[in-house]
Amino acid sequence: MTSLTASARRQQHPGALALGAARIGYEVRAYFRQPDSVFFTFLFPVLLLTIFATAFAEQEFGRDADGEVVTAAAYYLPSMLAAGILLSGLQNLAIDIAVERGDGTLKRLAGTPLPVVSYFIGKLGQVLVTGATQAVLVIGVAAIAFRVPLPTTPEAWLTVLWVFLLGVLTSAVLGIALSRVPRSGKSATAVVIPIVLVLQFVSGVYLQFSLLPEWLQSIANVFPVAWAAHGMRAALLPDTLAVLEQGEAWNLPGVALVSGAWLVGGLVLCLLTFRWIRKDG
Amino acid sequence: MDNHQSVVRVHELVKRYGERAVVDGASFEIARGETFALLGPNGAGKSTTIEILEGYRDRTSGVAEVLGTDPGKGSLDWKRRLGIVLQSSGETGNATVREQLRHFARFYPAPRDVDEVIAAVGLEAQAGQLIRKLSGGQRRRVDVALGIIGRPELLFLDEPTTGFDPEARRRFWDLIRSLKAEGTSILLTTHYLDEAAQLADRAGVIAGGSIVAIGAVHELGGAEAWTPAVRWREEGRMHEHRTTTPGAVVAALQSRLGVEPQGLEIVRPTLEDVYLQLIGAAEPTTAPDAATDREVRS
């Protein structure tokens, strides 16, 4: 029973990319086996969309070019996609990695020949897969359960796609950077959740952005969450609502600019600060 | 010992935290293929030493070499040759035993067969279960399995059998023997002295951050420390006589008493007895000085 075969079978080193791909599968499985992450990260935007769509069912959020009413569900769909980007990327990874640092997962990996870049690929891949699934679910629920009219032009969907990809990658990278802040895995939730909540409120995810005071909108526009929401509104809301934005127009270049800057900054921060474990010097 | 034959070389190793030296000039070597046990009480510097060798901690001064490499600068290639079983694991465990081993096997150029390793640690029945649902001892066996999956040249085992039931412990010993037979070099720390006696070729006893004794397991502390004792009960009291010729002592005792001595036994010190002497926490009954009759309260 306890004898082991002495012969070695394969001899070449597995590549960092192949290991990264293997990490993605491993990470996605682990994500869906964690009830916390499934509820508070994955299903949360769908839950909120349902609440908003139901609570404000009687309210009118504007009219499109044909005079059709923009419902609460339609109005909140872009916001919920932005919320999903923030939750799946930043909240998920900041807590996940802080917990992994606290519970010994990273220490174990540090003792193996797994390249750090493969670990990163695994985390980013997990965010992409779970975030995209979540976005499809949110859009599907909006369209089927709340009859939100979806855009019919390829341009609109292309916008959804790039705003999502840029947003979710930025959010993930910032999550990795933020995971250094909590001193222990146990305090991770307490540190990360308030940041995420405040960001969502000031960025007009829960509240109508156009109803926030101008100065608060300007503060929110420093952060990428508001821009993910701008981008999603540009793609999914009728153009008649563009007048509610700052400058009374959709600002897609702004989305690319601000989010891109945070992505680059976050990447640099990650590369400079990420360590498997806190060495004691 | 030839340096080229050493898989681990530690010389005058020092680790300080502020003013406090946790490791204070420890020196030892481990030869290729050897199983070396590092023994010592909690806080003696065992884990700090082993974590320096694994590359987890930086040393303050001294030499540390593992497979010819400074562990503070170990590359991925270096890590491919190591197996590490850390002291504790509190991971979430959202993978099954088989998934976890398959996944970790991919990190190494020539991993062992996953099912073979699962069988070797006796987790066949739990192979499909999530690790978080296993008992503490079973999780510990997963740790051991992950340590050996990459077919390491050098295996670090930091208190590997904590939480094992006796059967699992025996099985673990068999596993380690089969790894030894393959030529794996092993650095073991353990609080179970019988385990060290069973598995290790040599041992070092660390106390206060430095090595107080080192040598073959059954010679540790010198011949004196291993002197057998004859014990018997006479007039309601326990007597003990330490001697290298217990047969002669028993014969003399028998003829002096004229009857069968009560409660007669010849006791050879175990590694645990020797160890306790060495770290200065020995009971008076096992003090090494006595080749004389002493009375011991029963």
From TrEMBL, chain A:
Q: List, in alphabetical order, the Gene Ontology terms for molecular function in this entry.
A: ABC-type transporter activity
**Membrane topology, as annotated:** Multi-pass membrane protein
InterPro entries recorded:
ABC-2_transporter (IPR052902), ABC2_TM (IPR013525), ABC2_TM_bact-type (IPR047817), ABC_2_transport (IPR000412)
Cellular localisation: Membrane
What highest taxon heads this organism's lineage? Bacteria
Q: Name one GO cellular component term.
A: ATP-binding cassette (ABC) transporter complex
Q: Which PANTHER family match?
A: DOXORUBICIN RESISTANCE ABC TRANSPORTER PERMEASE PROTEIN DRRC-RELATED
Name of the featured protein: Transport permease protein
